[in-house]
Structure formats: structure tokens, C-alpha cells
Amino acid sequence: MSIAQMTRDSSALAWRNLLNIRRTPGSIFASILQPIMFVLLLGYVFGGSLGGDAYREFIMGGIFAQTVTFNASFTTIGLANDLQKGVVDRFRSLPMSRIAVLLGRTTSDLATSVISLTVTSLCGLLIGWRIRGGLLDALAGYGLILLFAFAMSWVGAYIALVARSVEVAQSLGLIWLFPATFISSGFVSVTAMPQPLATIAEWNPITSLANAGRELFGNPTPAALPQPQGWPAEHAILYTVLCSIGIIAIFLTLAVSRYRRVATR
């Protein structure tokens, strides 16, 4: 199976998934509502007591990271739904690349992340967040967030293949997201956490993505909060890139291997 054919097959399936989004707009409603809810709740419920405008700018990096991480659940549910309804079985009967089913799903779900990031950015602008860095830095920031979103989609794809049913996928697809996103510096400084949570949060890729976003968008940690320290914080951009590539390599391999086993049943 050539790379060209794999690309064509994946593109066709990605387009099919995007058409499904257009035909069932309710499926993307949560990806739009969730960032709005977190921006407003965290910005105004906690913002007044934790630093006001400065804190509202600080949390935007964390909300960006949380938003694209939570979008992995859409990959999980979407792929599990195709498996449960037998759609994937029909794809297997066609002369197409096996990885195309997975690559088409993870690629199309980047569109969900783009929509979520757009909504999150607009909400951020409404509460006073601003991009205070240069244009190239801002573009790099969004590119880094989307790279991490793609990595999280592969985690979601593997969970869907393990779950096999939509009901189980919904539970497994969400249960890991809350500790992963909240044990991080998304909304508070890592140095304010007790051990061993502080160490876990320090090396959490979601922490580095939030810190990298703040660096590239020009939104430093407020003076009232403890400043981030440690190698991941000092090299947030590099660490996020390395983690994203590592996550893709690991979970792409696991997902393809699992897909092949499922296909032989």
C-alpha cells in the first residue's frame, strides 16, 4: 500500500467525517459550549480573587490546553460509534489502507479543535485576553496547540478501539481527562501544589503546553502567583513538541496494532 493511496484514502474518510459534522451539528455543540463555559466561569468566578485581569490572561493558556485535550473524547466517541454500527466493517471490505480509517478520524477531528480554538480565542478577547507577542509567535502558538490536539486524538482513537462500544467509550474517554488537565498549571501555579502532585504537574505535557502558549502569546504568570520553575517550564515549547511527537508515535502504534487485531475477529 503506497503512501499516495494511504493519503487519498485518509483524505476521503476525513471528508466523510466532516460531512457527518455538518449533517449533525449537535455533535459539535459540546466542543463550542465547553470552552465558553470554562472561560467565563474561571475568568469571573475565580478571577476576581486570584488576580483579576492578569489572572484571566494567565488562565487562557490553560484553557487552550484543556480544550484540545478534552476534544480527544470526540475522537473516542466518533470512532467507537463507527465500530458499533458496523461502518468500520464496511471499510475493511474495501481495498484501502487500514491506517486510513484511524488517520481519517484523527485528521478530521482537527477541524473540531480549530473551531474550539476559534471560539475560545473570541471568548478570551471578550474577557480581556490579548495576544501580546508577535504574529509569528502567535501562529507558532496555535500550531503547537493543534499539534498537541492531533496527539490527543490518537489517545482517543486507541481508547475507542479498546472500548468497542459507545457507552464504554464515553466513560473511558472522559475519566482520564479531568485528572490530566487539573493536575497541571492550567489554572494555578505548580509550585503551590503539595508533593507528589507538584512533580506530576511539573512534567505533565498539558502544563508545558499551557506554559508554551503563555510564552508565545505574551501572557506571563502574574506576579502574585509563584513563578514556574524546572526544566519543563524553562523549555516549555521544546518539551511540548517532544511530548506531542512521543504521544503520536506511541498511540499511533498501539492503535494500529489494536485495529489489526480487531479486524481479524
Backbone shape = elongated
Low-confidence regions? none
* Helix and strand composition category: mainly alpha
Q: Helix content range of the residues, please?
A: over 70%
Whole-number average pLDDT?
86
Work out the strand percent.
under 5%
Number of strands: 0
- What is the CA-based Rg, rounded? 19 Å
The N- and C-terminal alpha carbons lie at a distance of 22 Å
Q: In sequence order, what are the helices and strands, one letter per element?
A: HHHHHHHHHHHHH
Entry keywords:
78% helix, 265 residues
How does this model look, in words?
The longest helix is centred in the middle third of the chain and has 29 residues, at 98-126. This protein has 265 residues and is mainly alpha-helical. Helices cover 78% and strands 0% of the residues. It has 13 helices and no strands. The chain starts with a helix and ends with a helix. The mean pLDDT is 86. The chain is elongated and about 60 Å long.
